[in-house]
Amino acid sequence: MKVHRPADQRGRTTLGARTRLCTFSSGDFHDPEWLGFGALRQLNEEHLPPGATVPAQRVANMELLTLVLEGTLVREGVALEPGALAWTGAGHASDTPMETAGVDGARVLRIAIQPGRVNLPPATDITRAAGAEGWTLLAAPEAGGNGLPIRQQAWLRRARLAPGAHLDLTLDATQRHWLQILRGGVTVDGHALAAGDALGVYDAGIHAELVATAAGAEALLITLPG
């Protein structure tokens, strides 16, 4: 089964000076047909103007990931630039770090994944993806992998494609997969996807190619338990 989530059908909410485009129900946006995708509970594209602050909040039993797409996000004194991924494993309860957008503002992707176990000790980490083309592992289950050690059988991979480039995409039918286009556009398995569009796949395997448009592309692939 494949589900298509066009960019222009996402919900739009505001939190002070921040604007969020919500793939699934989140905050003031509620759509009973889009409550999540398996263990993936939240996927928000957030736009922060220069100097905007994000206060700390108390969260429990959720794997929270923030991927910086544009600009700079300062998190506990550490400047996160495009490509950086910050992880907060909110186990039995923890406060998320306060954040501030840099002088040019920031555009980030907020991801929330239910953990495989509850009431684990809180944990945090940061990774900075290399700029090479092809797939780059950003996060993987705590048992192995070179990405952030999130506490779920979930993998996050980012792809960069040059204009017109082809990249293999193999999806296992026993897992769920969410492909989010971050920049540019691609065609895959008969679907044309532009920035902000997404394709979810479950109960079906795919072996295809991502083919970038003339503008090139960046995509995020989230693989989850079936």
Describe how the helices and strands are arranged:
Blueprint: E1 2-5, E2 11-15, E3 18-22, E4 40-48, E5 53-54, E6 58-59, E7 62-75, E8 78-80, E9 84-90, E10 94-95, E11 99-113, E12 123-128, E13 134-141, E14 148-150, E15 155-161, E16 166-171, E17 175-188, E18 191-194, E19 198-201, E20 206-225
Parallel strand pairs: 13-14
Antiparallel strand pairs: 1-19, 2-3, 3-4, 4-11, 5-11, 6-10, 7-8, 7-9, 7-11, 9-12, 13-15, 15-20, 16-20, 17-18, 17-19, 17-20
Task: Summarize the structure in words.
InterPro entries: Pirin, Quercetinase_C, RmlC-like_jellyroll, RmlC_Cupin_sf. This protein is mainly β and about 230 residues long. It has strands at about 1-5, 10-15, 20, 40-50, 55, 60, 60-75, 80, 85-90, 95, 100-115, 125-130, 135-140, 150, 155-160, 165-170, 175-190, 190-195, 200, 205-225. Strands 1, 13, 14, 15, 16, 17, 18, 19 and 20 form a nine-stranded mixed beta sheet that branches. It starts with a strand and ends with a strand.
Mean pLDDT: 94
Strand content: over 45%
Can you write the helix and strand succession as a string? EEEEEEEEEEEEEEEEEEEE
What is the SS-derived class? mainly beta
Features:
226 residues; mainly beta; nine-stranded mixed sheet; nine-stranded antiparallel sheet; 20 strands; globular
